[in-house]
Amino acid sequence: MNEFAPCPKCQSSDAQKVSFTWWGGLVGPRLLKHVKCNRCGATFNGKTGQSNTTNIIIYTVVLLAIAIALGVLIANAQ
User: Fold this and answer.
1) Longest CA–CA separation in the chain, Å
2) DSSP codes of every residue in 19-74
3) Where along the chain do its domains lie?
4) pLDDT for 78
5) Has residue 1 got a pLDDT over 90?
6) Is there a contact between 54 and 61 (Cβ–Cβ < 8 Å)?
7) What does the alpha-carbon distance between residue 56 and residue 44 come to, in Å, rounded to a whole number?
8) Residue 76 in 3-state DSSP?
9) 8 A C-beta contact, residue 46 and residue 33
């Protein structure tokens, strides 16, 4: 049994976990089961085999909203 779903681009089951990304640091790739195909280089959700693009956008927007809210709270506390 393969550890990851087949690549959506080349159908290869040879993929590896992504441990760090610019958009999610160390946590984002783990939450989204982000993997990279060793054959074609495509990145995708290793559990579902689908693109993580929408999930990455949602993850980034939520983190940005939290950062802005914290910034406003800190600015108002001073």
Assistant:
1) 56
2) --BTTTBTHHHHHTTEEEETTT--EEETTT-S--HHHHHHHHHHHHHHHHHHHHHH
3) 15-77
4) 81
5) no
6) no
7) 11
8) helix
9) yes
Single pTM value for the model: 0.82
SS3 4: coil
Cα–Cα separations (whole angstroms), residue 25 to 10, 11, 55, 60, 64: 27, 27, 15, 11, 14
Cβ neighbours, 10 Å, residue 11: 11
- How much of the chain, in percent, has pLDDT values that exceed 70? 99
* Structure token digits, residue 5: 């779903």
Q: pLDDT tens-digit profile of 15-72?
A: 999 999 999 999 999 999 999 999 999 999 999 999 999 999 999 999 999 999 999 9
